[in-house]
Amino acid sequence: MDIKITRAKQLKNKPDESNLGFGHYFTDHMFVMDYTVEQGWHNAQIVPYGPIPMDPASMVLHYAQETFEGLKAYRNHDQILIFRPEMNAKRMIASNERLCMAEVSEELFVEAVEAIVDYEKDWVPSAEGTSLYIRPFCFATEAGVGVHPARAYKFIIILSPVGAYYPEGVNPVKIFVEDEYVRAVVGGTGFAKCGGNYAASIAAQVKAEKMGYTQVLWLDGVHRKYVEEVGTMNAMFVIDDEIVTAPLEGSVLPGVTRDSCIQILKDWGYTISERHLDIDDLMEYAKNGRLKEAFGTGTAAVISPIGELSYKGNVQIINDFKTGELTCKLYDELTGIQWGTKADPYGWVKTV
Ligand code: COI
Fold first, then answer.
1. Which of 10, 75, 284, 291 is deepest in the core (most CB within 10 A)?
2. Residues in domain Rhodanese (predicted)?
3. pTM for this structure?
């Protein structure tokens, strides 16, 4: 792919790496590409980061044809590493298909990610626990208010140097089990990474935050009883000697970190079951001590211990609100592979 480059006239000062938070700073440049039914994907460019002119009738603003991805670049001295970008590419293909949007091929996605990360490599931070968050996204730009698949799209990649997603850092988070709203149902868009899923989740998030919780744990939308996922991450529960996570049946996001953890845990000899887990049983296991550890997995959240669950007034503390042994071991292994400080037997890491 030929990429036309327009360099920013003035480069920004880099932020203090000890206080990055998540998603507050953006690099000097972004990748932009256009699609029309007539021309396919064309006009690949790296341009200064900044506003994008849009027609007010752009279909994304009305009917939400929008999908996105999240992955990270890591610095190991002079080397820049990215983690399983082809998995994100495949997920965007599935998301775009569900929303009847133009396909961004795996090759195009990976090449564009590598190109913009390479161009902005000075922005990959080096302080412990920091990385460059990569946010590819795709949306409908055709002007019109009839409901049908748009005939024009943009694919953009922006980059943000980040630290921990949660203010708690790698310490346990408190989770509110949502019993009023639902996130997704089988047959809907739950498996797709699209803005609409997150828009629909915000009311529950606001409610949970008001009560002092960091995130919500969603239950299935039909029975309102089986555990699905947490707001920004998949969830895993260590019950006796079994690790349980929700199955991918259409309503749960197929997380890249989820998939990686399942693989590592299996290779370590753990029993990991992708199965339905009744919330009443989970609360009982938490109460009687059979729930040894719980943690979330996600690109932004990495591995985040869950220290408290609240469901219909029943509040249970997990592992004395301490990060569990397995959670720590998994965090070390996964981040070691991602930062290139541990062997990568899976071939997951790519050097840019
Ligand atoms: C990610 O982990 O990359 C996500 O997309 C979660 C995000 C909504 C912050």
1. 291
2. 194-235
3. 0.96
